[in-house]
Structure formats: structure tokens, C-alpha cells
Hints:
By secondary structure, the protein is mainly α. It is built from 7 helices and no strands. It has helices spanning 4-15, 18-34, 44-62, 86-105, 108-119, 124-131, 135-159. α1 (4-15) runs parallel beside α3 and α3 (44-62) packs parallel to α6. The longest helix is centred in the C-terminal third of the chain and has 25 residues, at 135-159.
Amino acid sequence: MPHLDAAFNLARWLTGNTADAEDVVQDAYLRAFRYLDAFRGDNFRVWLLTIVRNSFLDWLKDNRSGRNLFQPAPADLESTDPNPTPEAMLLDRVDGETLSILMARLPAEYREVLILREIEDLSYKDIAAVTGLPAGTVMSRLSRARLALRKAWTENEKKS
């Protein structure tokens, strides 16, 4: 199942929880399998992430309730230090949790482009293909998302 991790990661950030993300990814893979013969591109990952996004939008229409759909995804943090100190592990965890919380507070359109660029490492062109937006809009949203996240981080640091 190629690109399952990327598909699940995007779905988890969009839905806000693991169970709903699993449903979205399952639906996306079923759609991808059903329409595999229609794939006419050179980047299967972009095509699949587009299907994941569209599956999420359909899921959102069907499951729109009073609850907040955009909750932070669980932090799956790995330390880059092979032998971190307990203090370093705590700081990494706190920073990761803070980042997850601040990301969840961003508007969905900002969070989406940030995830696709910074976590999934897609190009602007590929993000434009996934989201159906012009590349200029992707760059603009990404810039605004980074500024909003930086501002939220700074404000959070001042409170601490």
C-alpha cells in the first residue's frame, strides 16, 4: 500500500483523530483502487493525497456535527539524539505538544498547506494539484500559515 503513511498523516491532521482518519483513508484507498485505471500522471502520491483530501471533504459533509472536527493529532515525536537526557525528552515532548495545539488552532486551509509542505515535503506545484488551488494561492497560504504559527508560538512563549 504505497504512501499509506502520508495518506494517514494528512487524514489525521484534517479529521483531528485516528478513528476518523482511518475511515477517510480507507475510503480514499477504495476510491483509488476503483479508479486506478484513470490515473494518468507521473506522481501517484499527489494523486492519492488528492483523493484523501476529497474523501475528507465528503466525510466532513456527512459527519458535520456540533463537535470541533479539528483537534490536534497525537504527537508522534522521536528525538534526534540517540541518548537524550530526561530533561531534553521532556522539552521535546512539551514543544511537540505545543506545536500540535498551535497547529490545530490554525484555520484548516493554513494547516493543510503546512502539513503538505513541511511534513509531507510536497512541492508547491504538487500542493496545488492536491488542493486544486493555483500555485500562487498555495504560496500565499503557506506564507500566512507560517506567520500565524510563528505569532501563536511567540504569544504562547510570552504566557509561559
